[in-house]
Specification:
Number of strands: 0
Mean pLDDT: 81
Largest sheet: none
Number of domains: 1
Structural class: mainly alpha
Helix content: 55-70%
Order of helices and strands: HHHHH
Length: 72
Amino acid sequence: MKRSIKGTYVAVDPAHLFRYLDEQSFRFNARKGKYADRFVEVAGMVTGRRLTYKELIGKNEADEKGNPKTSN
């Protein structure tokens, strides 16, 4: 696992570690299939799902309006 992550990514953000691990476990579990089969499976998983850029980077409406974030 460690080798596959180090060989694929420059840096791994701990906040997204579960996503990296999910991807690597999918690759391992689908390693015996052909690339085309893996592509069809992934395409089926993402069809109908939408992730906007704002959701990806964690931006919310308060950030857009210029309101400062509150710090504790």
